[in-house]
Structure formats: structure tokens, C-alpha cells
Design brief:
The complex is a heterotetramer, with one copy of chain A (187 residues), two copies of chain B (224 residues) and one copy of chain C (202 residues).
Chain A lengths: L2 H17 L17 H12 L1 H17 L19 H21 L6 H30 L5 H8 L3 H21 L8
Chain B lengths: L2 E10 L2 E11 L3 E6 L5 H8 L7 E6 L2 E2 L6 H4 E4 L12 H10 L5 H14 L15 H14 L4 E5 L7 H13 L3 E5 L11 E6 L2 E6 L1 H12 L1
Parallel strand pairs in B: 3-8, 3-9, 6-7, 7-8
Antiparallel strand pairs in B: 1-2, 1-4, 4-5, 9-10
Helix pairs in contact in B: 3-4, 3-5, 4-5, 5-6
Chain C lengths: L10 H4 L2 H17 L3 H16 L5 H25 L2 H24 L2 H12 L10 H31 L6 H25 L8
Helix pairs in contact in C: 2-5, 3-5, 4-5, 6-7, 7-8
Classes of the chains: A mainly alpha (187), B alpha/beta (224), C mainly alpha (202).
The complex binds adenosine-5'-triphosphate (2 copies), biotin and magnesium ion (MG) (2 copies).
């Protein structure tokens, strides 16, 4: 990995951490908070692509494991890997990878702005919602003992927020691509 | 323009960035010089209300900056590092952005953007990426964005930073030709030749307030 | 280039980075196995005693915790609204204790020490052939370096909005924030290469 | 020092940043001037291998920068914005950082850090946070970090940027006193007075290679 790639991964890990300063919203019926950090995961995929986006999320998980309070609400420590939220947390890795992979496939510099935004939006929706929820919900249901239907319907409460996040990530991804092209140029 | 400082001071905790200052500025061109950390930027930020005085008042065109936020529409500010002030990545979008939030219609926005680009002969920059511009081009783009919204006073914080001789002359020309009032902070003393009023700051204090030649002499003494 | 480190000579300062990280990791597990309010309250008192005796004036020490403390209180309040009060108090105490100790660790451990420890911990992973321990250490150090910088960039961009009388929206904050920090990142990467810090690559 | 360019050129896609250049540098002090975007930084980055020539070769002390990565240990580089070059927040840590990756022992690192701080009378900066330093102090810290690892050639890209008169004189003095060879890129022409060899770049081409007075004259003509 080139030094630039390494630094870029660290930068997005830091962005995910910084987004943790926004307070999480805890819901009563599901033991997983709404957090702005998953926006960072989507942006990492959209801006950095699959490989670097994945590494950025892995770096965050290393920080969590060390015990630094980098998750929203000041959480951190190995306990975060054995909590009801852990499926989502570990799902971030796959989410960033999928978002990045699809961004690389769906978006290129020759498209017009709208097409780029749509491509990024789809990538963020599939990576940051479909794939992420699949991880999060299965873990909640199987390990968290919530049962599939409760885990599934409970998680639907995240949908509005996460669609907005995917939308923001798409707009940001497009603007960064126009203003500081990263995805294709820097492989 | 009419700017009045009434015992305005700025403290950051125990550190004094600007000692109580009273003065009135009405001239069309005002220069500001001083060593690093002497309080020049702090002084300028008071004028457009980015920093509020921790004591005293600053009155710009009759409005107290601590109370009236609309002062910032009267006072345009070009930051020490202009890349920090461009918000949207493409020059044209950035210029339009300031206008949009002021409620102009789409047609009006386009007209005004074109007008300001024409005024500064910057049409060729319209579709460029801000982060790829050279130093001189960046200053020009920042100037367009700020002046598009029609402030009557312009503050330029070290506008010739990193610029070559040619761009320096160019920016100097731009500033000379401005119809707006301008306050120019700089380490580039040539820029101020001919200014009737130049303020010299030292350790948070106004130590000279005179025509360019006299002020520069005072500054050189301090720096020696 | 910023950091949360503060100079001093307290017990925490003298403890090795490794010991602190081990205690922190242990705390991250232990605090979550108990729901006994008395135990957790004791943990809060102890960690508070540690944190507030690091040598930082109380006001400054408290100011650093404010944002994160606020989020913890919000979490607890939400928890209170939907769960039995006992659960809310447990969450509050647990998170507060962990945060206090973690803040103590970051305040007394230099980025260098972090890098060294993480590198040492990651050394066994090198045998997989996938990663280099030095890179993991460097990456972690860079994150610790970047976070305060991102926050100050955020402030600067808000100011740019204010100076131009513009309304703040998520995209108009995030776009310049990313572009500016990406540029910084590029420069930092060049500096790392120029100084030959990643010897195996350069 | 011995630096040889053999038809070295740099292209970014269609844009030519540096036209094929052949020259040899052996002098202890070399100045580099030119308009914004004329290729100065590109030229400098070639010397320590940060940028590889897209054609031709660059040989530094007998080693080809495209093939031999160890060139970067011979050539220290102080960037145009030194705040991005300080990697770790505490000055002492940052200096030590470069040494650590060179495999020195802990004791040796401490000795060398102290030595370089003493050399530049910068002991008072050792425990300061880099982001709190003034512009002049920042340059000094960057200098310590880079020189601690013992390069024999030092490249300074606009070292007096944003500095006031006093700090400018200070940095100028630091550069004069260096025992290492130095290549100084600058828009601050006074800095180069007395230099025997100054290169002038224009649109990616070396257009003059002469003593300071002559080179500056040529530059002024271009800029006019
Ligand atoms: N937000 C802040 N918090 C604490 N101190 C500050 C802050 N902003 C400025 N200062 C301090 O106030 C003093 C004046 O700073 P200011 O930026 O006005 O200087 P300046 O004259 O613009 O310097 P330069 O020529 O380097 O730009 C300095 O000592 C600076 O460190
Ligand atoms: N990574 C890059 N990609 C594309 N173009 C580049 C890149 N780096 C530099 N350039 C271009 O190469 C040319 C030379 O740039 P360089 O940075 O060497 O100029 P400079 O003389 O150092 O200018 P300044 O005085 O503004 O620092 C410029 O036109 C610049 O836009
Ligand atoms: O902080 C953690 O431990 C992980 C939280 C995961 C929250 C998930 S991410 C997807 C979904 N959308 C949200 O806003 N929250 C959940
Ligand atoms: Mg200033
Ligand atoms: Mg340059």
C-alpha cells in the first residue's frame, strides 16, 4: 500500500471517529442506536473505493479494540464486539467494501453529474443498507437473541436516517469527484 | 465606510490578542502591518463580526457587530489562506452559492455570476476546480465569490501570500481598482506604497497610525 | 498536528503505555459484565479521581469531556425513556467510567507511545504476510493526529460560512471539509515519503 | 553534493510540468525562482525522488532517483506548507520519528534529538505543540526534524512564506549558517542576495542559470 493510500485510510478513519461526536439516538425497541458514523462508512466507500474504504473501517475497529472511546456516545473497548450492536459494527467492513466496489463499477468521470450521484447513491444504499443490515439483523436475531422478525422490523427504524445518509454520501461523493477526483485517478 | 472601535479588546483566556482600542476608520484604503502574532487578523475579524470583542464595541456603518449579524453582509473577508474560504469545489458554483442563499432567482444569479467574472476578467476560471488553481488564481476566485454579493467594505488578509512578482502586481492592481473600500493586511510592504493610512500593530497594541512611509519606518524599527 | 496529550508527571504519566492500554482493554470488558450499580459507581469515582489529578486545571479538564459527556447523558436519558431506570443508570455509569479512564489514557500517552505499542501488538500479525506492523502503528498514530485537525477544519469552514453570511448545511460542510483534509493528507503523505519514514516502501 | 539532470522531464497527462532538462548542480547554495506554476516545486521534488521523471534521469550523488530509493536519505525537504510536514504533534516526538524508522536505538535517538535542538538553539521548542508555534518557530522545528536524520542536501520550498520581517531575517540567517548544501526556492528575492547560482524557471523550462543579480533581472523581465 502506498503511503498516500495509508494516509487517506487514516484520514477517513478519523472522519468516522469525528462523526461519533454527534450524539447517538437510542431507540426503545431495539438495542442499537442511530448514529452519524455510518455516514462516514458510506463516504469512505464512495470516496476511497473498495480497498481503501475497507482499510479505513478496519482501522476504526482497531481503535475500538484498543479501548479508545471512538464509537458514538463515547463507547469503545472489546465489549463493543460482544454487544447487540456488534453485527452492525463488524458489518461496517463489508458495507464499506460493497459501497466502494459498486462505486468503482457504477461511477466514472465521463458521466454527467446526475448519473454520478445516482451511481453513488445506489452504491451507498446497497452497501450501507442492504449488506450492512443483513449483517446487523442476523447478528441481532441469532446472537442477540432478538428473533428475526423483531430484529428486522426494529431495524426498519434506521431506514429513513440511512436513506438520508446515502443521499448525503452520494452528493458529497459527487462533489469530491468533481472537485478532487480520487476514485479512478488514484488507483 | 465608517468603522468605529470603542475600547474594543480581545482576550483568549489569559492571553490578550488585542488591547483596548479606540479609533475611527473612514478612508477608502487602509493598510495594516505588524509582526507575526501582533493582532492584525484579530483586528480584521472584529470588523466583520467573526470575532466578538470581549470588551468594548465595534460599530460598522452604524451597527454594533456584537448585536447585529447583518454586518457580515456589508463586510467581505478574504482569509489568510483563501483555499479555506472556497466552499464549493467549482469556482462558478462557489460564486453562485453566496447569491443563492440571499434568495436571488436563478436567472439573476447567473447574471450576477457572469457580471463579477467579467468585472475581474476571470471568465476562464468559471469551470475550474478551486483546489487546482494557482495561488494568484485562487485569490481572484475568492475575490469574485466575496464581491458577487455586493459588500461595501472588503478586508484582505495577506492577499499576496505565495504569489510571484507578476501575480503580486496583478492583485495589487485589483485592489487599487476596487470601487469598494478596502482594508489590506500584509507583510508585503510594497503593496501599501501610496496608502494614506496604515496601522501598525505590536503585541496586540496599535503603535502607529500614519501614512505608508512613516508607518513602514516604525514597523522596520520594531522588526530590527 | 494537534493532540490531546498534556504534559505532567502523575501516576498515569509514569505508567507505561502498554500497561495503560491493557487496563483500558480490561476495563472495556469488566465494566460490561456487571450491572451492580455500587460497583459501577465506585469505578466512576476511581476513574474520575485518576482523570482529574492529571495536572490539568479542573475547568480545562472538564471542558475536554463536555462533548462526549453530553452524548453519554443523552444516551442515558433516552434509555430512561424506554427502559427501567436501573438500566439507564447502569449505562450512564459504565460509559462515564470508561470515558474517564480512556480520556486519562489519551491525555497521558503521546502519539509516539501509541504508535510504538500498537506496532508491538501488531507484530505477530506480520506472520500472516498481509500487513506490516509499522503501518498499523503509523495508521493509528495518524488517526489520533487527524481527529483534532478535522474538528478545527470544521470550525474554520463554519467561519467561512459566517463570514460570507451563508447557511450551514451538511453537504456544504462536508464537501470542503473532505477536499481540504484530502489535500492535507496528500501533503502529509509526501512529507512521510520525503522523510523516509516508511523505509520498506521508500 | 552532486546532482545531475539528464534530459529529465515531467508530464501530468497532457500538461508538461517540466520540459526536458539537463544540468549539473554542485554549488553549496542554489536559488530557484520563477512565476507561480513555472515548475519550481516539480524540479525540487525530482531531486529527492518524490516525483519520478516521466522521461530522462535524475542522478543524486551517483544514484538514479528512479531506481534507488535511498536517495531520500541524502536529501531533506522542507515543504511549502510546513504545518503539513510536521507529522507528530510534539516537536521532540516529531524529530525522533524520522530517526526511529532508521533503526537507531532509543539512547541514540535521544542523543541525536538533543544535538539537533542544541545546534539550532531550539531547546525551548522541544516540548511545545507544533500547532501552537508561530510561523518562524514552525520553520525552525521543521528544519530540526529534517536535519536530524543527517541529509547532506537540503531543499527549502518558500521558507519565508507568511513570515514577518523579523522572522524572515531569522530564517535567512539559519539558511546561511547551514553546513549542508541547500537549494532554496522562493518568491522573496532578497533571500537570494549573494547567491552565486540561481535558476530561473518559466513555463516548465529553465530560462536562466546565473548569479543572483543577473537571474533576478531575468525574472523581473518575465514577470513584467
Ligand atoms: N482562537 C485563539 N485562541 C487563542 N489565541 C489566539 C486565537 N487566535 C489568535 N490568538 C493569539 O492572538 C495573537 C494575535 O493573533 P493574530 O492572528 O491576530 O496575529 P497576526 O498579526 O494576524 O499574525 P500573522 O502575521 O502571523 O498572521 C497571537 O498571539 C495568537 O496566538
Ligand atoms: N499532481 C499534479 N497534477 C497535475 N498537474 C500538476 C501536478 N503538480 C503540479 N502540476 C502542474 O505543474 C505545473 C508546475 O507546478 P509547480 O508546483 O512545480 O509550480 P511552482 O513553480 O512550484 O509554483 P508556485 O510558485 O505556485 O509554488 C503547474 O502548472 C501545476 O499546475
Ligand atoms: O456504535 C456501534 O457500536 C455501532 C452502531 C451501529 C449502528 C447501526 S449502523 C446502521 C444502522 N443505522 C444507524 O443509524 N444505526 C445502525
Ligand atoms: Mg494573521
Ligand atoms: Mg511551488
Amino acid at each position: 500500500m502506498s503511503t498516500r493510500d495509508l494516509v487517506l485510510c487514516a484520514l477517513f478513519a478519523a472522519i468516522i471517529v469525528a462523526l461519533g461526536i454527534l450524539p447517538p439516538i437510542t431507540l426503545g425497541f431495539i438495542p442499537v442506536p442511530i448514529t452519524a458514523q455510518s455516514l462516514g462508512v458510506m463516504m469512505a466507500g464512495v470516496v476511497l473505493g473498495a480497498r481503501r474504504g475497507t482499510v479505513a473501517v478496519l482501522i476504526v475497529l482497531v481503535l475500538v479494540a484498543i479501548g479508545l472511546p471512538v464509537l458514538s456516545g463515547g463507547r469503545g473497548g472489546l465489549a463493543a464486539f460482544a454487544a447487540p450492536t456488534s453485527g452492525f459494527l463488524m458489518g461496517w467492513v463489508l458495507a464499506a467494501f460493497t459501497t466502494g466496489y459498486l462505486s468503482e463499477r457504477l461511477v466514472n468521470a465521463d458521466q454527467n453529474a446526475t448519473m454520478q450521484a445516482i451511481g453513488f447513491f445506489l452504491a451507498a444504499m446497497i452497501g450501507g443498507i442492504v449488506v450492512l443490515y443483513a449483517c446487523g439483523i442476523s447478528y441481532l436475531a441469532l446472537v442477540g437473541g432478538l428473533g428475526f422478525s423483531k430484529a428486522f422490523f426494529g431495524s426498519m427504524a434506521f431506514i429513513p436516517g440511512d436513506v438520508i445518509k446515502a443521499f448525503v454520501a452520494a452528493l458529497v461523493g459527487r462533489a469530491v469527484m468533481a472537485g478532487y477526483p480520487l476514485l479512478p485517478a488514484r488507483r | 465606510m465608517n468603522i468605529r472601535f470603542e475600547s474594543a479588546e480581545v482576550r483568549y483566556g489569559a492571553r490578550v490578542a488585542l488591547l483596548p482600542l479606540s479609533l475611527e476608520l473612514t478612508e477608502r484604503r487602509i493598510g495594516v502591518i505588524g509582526l507575526n502574532g501582533s493582532g492584525k487578523t484579530t483586528f480584521a475579524r472584529l470588523i466583520n463580526g467573526l470575532t466578538k470583542p470581549t470588551g468594548g464595541r465595534v460599530i460598522v456603518n452604524g451597527r454594533d457587530t456584537s448585536e447585529d449579524k447583518s454586518v457580515s453582509t456589508d463586510v467581505g473577508f478574504i482569509f489568510q489562506s483563501p483555499q479555506n474560504q472556497i466552499i464549493l469545489p467549482i469556482v462558478r458554483d462557489d460564486i453562485a452559492f453566496g447569491l443563492k442563499s440571499r434568495g436571488f432567482s436563478k436567472v439573476e444569479i447567473d447574471t450576477r455570476v457572469d457580471a463579477v467574472l467579467r468585472r475581474f476578467k476571470a471568465e476562464h476560471l468559471a469551470d475550474r476546480r478551486a483546489h487546482e488553481l494557482s495561488g494568484g488564481e485562487l485569490q481572484l476566485a475568492a475575490l469574485c465569490s466575496v464581491l458577487a454579493t455586493g459588500p461595501s467594505i472588503l478586508i484582505l488578509d495577506e492577499p499576496t501570500n505565495q504569489l510571484d512578482l507578476r501575480n503580486r502586481g496583478y492583485v495589487q492592481g485589483l485592489v487599487e481598482d476596487l470601487t469598494e473600500s478596502a482594508i489590506v493586511i500584509t507583510h508585503d510592504l510594497d503593496l501599501l506604497s501610496g496608502y494614506e493610512r496604515v496601522l501598525v500593530f505590536h503585541q496586540g497594541q496599535l503603535v502607529a497610525d500614519a501614512a505608508a512611509a512613516e508607518a513602514v519606518r516604525c514597523y522596520r524599527e520594531i522588526a530590527a | 498536528m494537534q493532540s490531546l496529550f498534556i504534559e505532567g508527571s502523575s501516576l498515569m504519566h509514569r505508567l507505561s503505555a502498554r500497561a495503560k492500554l491493557l487496563i483500558l482493554a480490561a476495563l472495556g470488558v469488566l465494566l460490561f459484565v456487571t450491572t451492580n450499580i455500587a460497583v459501577l459507581a465506585t469505578a466512576v469515582l476511581l476513574t474520575a479521581a485518576v482523570y482529574f489529578t492529571l495536572g490539568l486545571p479542573f475547568k480545562a479538564a472538564f471542558a475536554r469531556l463536555k462533548p462526549i459527556l453530553l452524548t453519554i447523558v443523552v444516551v442515558a436519558l433516552f434509555s430512561l425513556a424506554f427502559n427501567p431506570w436501573h438500566q439507564a443508570v447502569v449505562a450512564l455509569l459504565r460509559l462515564t467510567a470508561l470515558m474517564l479512564f480512556a480520556a486519562g489514557v489519551t491525555a497521558t500517552t503521546t502519539i509516539t507511545a501509541f504508535i510504538d505499542e500498537v506496532t508491538a501488538l501488531a507484530r505477530p500479525l506480520e506472520r500472516t504476510g498481509l500487513v506490516r506492523a509499522d503501518d498499523i502503528g503509523l495508521a493509528v498514530g495518524l488517526v489520533v493526529r487527524f481527529v483534532p485537525e478535522i474538528l478545527s477544519r470544521y470550525q474554520a469552514i463554519r467561519e467561512a460560512h459566517a463570514a460570507r453570511g451563508l447557511k450551514v448545511r451538511p453537504t456544504t460542510i462536508l464537501v470542503p471539509l473532505l477536499i481540504l483534509t484530502l489535500r492535507d493528507a496528500d501533503n502529509i503523505a509526501a512529507a512521510i515519503d520525503a522523510r523516509g519514514i516508511r523505509r520498506h516502501v521508500i
